[in-house]
Amino acid sequence: MTDHYAVIGNPINHSKSPLIHTEFAKQSGQDLDYITRKIPLDDLAGGLKKLQEEGFKGINITVPFKEQAWQQVSDKSAHAQRAGAINTIIFNDDGTLTGDNTDGMGLCRDLINNHQIELKGKRLLLLGAGGAARGVIEPLLEYQPSSLFIANRTASKANDLCALFADFGNVQGGGYDAIAGSFDVIINATAASLNGEVPPLPDKVISPNGVCYDMMYSNSDTPFITWAKQHGATKAIDGLGMLVEQAAISFRLWRGVRPDTQSVIMLIRQLKAV
Ligand code: ATR
Fold it and tell me: Do 79 and 140 lie in a common domain?
């Protein structure tokens, strides 16, 4: 029997998740399908209930529901509990729901395994303090950077996150005007690109061998990727690898099988080039 999975969001039309999970299923011989489902902005609870009644086995959650979904699912991994946002739900056979957040591990896998970027002992700068940023802080700190500075337009939100994750490493934060010195890895977790903007970063914020990473992925360069190339980043990496890696971790949570990510990243890059 074919098992059903979906990604929920609003809007959701341009999601690459169905393509990614369909490729994973083909590769691993898993009998499943995966669709997009647009959920009304004011009725996440109703949307989840409907999916469960329809017999779905699991879902991914994207903008703008990651934090709301966290509130609705009581059983969560410890990491997801602290992140305050979830991107994966398992509909268990006994009718309960389990939540997890695979974004941070997906980001770290892409940085470390796919791009050979060392995090240990490095100075990291994370831009943004919303749901996207929250999900990646603890996984980044697990790799023992020398420091992590969280910069946000609303400084108080960055400071709140510093307090929340203080036990996990050397975390500081503030507004963009509080950024001091240069950084080895700069990660954009803001929604600024959606308005065609880049956060106001000081000149020389990228260290001589520094790398920039945009958690956002689009078919053309995002404003942050363009900025990074213009400001001397050794590498300017978009979020496609993270998208595929977080999907692979969700897939393993649901199916117990770890799919190959490289072939799927290559496939999507080729489709983009057509
Ligand atoms: P998400 O769940 O995708 O992170 P969010 O919670 O709305 O979405 O957070 C969006 C992030 O992008 C926030 O850090 C936001 O900064 P504020 O907390 O100050 O609102 C940031 N952001 C959005 N537009 C921005 C812009 N034009 N310049 C800089 N930061 C921006």
Answer: no
| Ligand 1 site, CB within 6 A | 63, 66, 128-133, 152-154, 157, 190-192, 195, 197, 199
pLDDT digits (tens, 9 = 90+) for 6-30: 999 999 988 999 999 999 999 999 9
State which residues form the domain around 191.
Answer: 104-238
**CB-based contact 161:133 (threshold 8 Å):** yes
Q: Cα separation of 248 and 257, whole Å?
A: 9
Q: What is the pLDDT of residue 274?
A: 63
Q: Are residues 108 and 212 in the same domain?
A: yes
- DSSP-assigned letter for residue 238: -
Verify that 195 and 258 share a domain, yes or no. no
Does the pTM of the predicted model rise above 0.70? yes
pLDDT digits (tens, 9 = 90+) for 51-73: 999 999 999 999 999 999 999 99
Ligand 1: atom nearest CA of 190 is 12
Question: What's the CATH number where 67 sits?
Answer: 3.40.50.10860
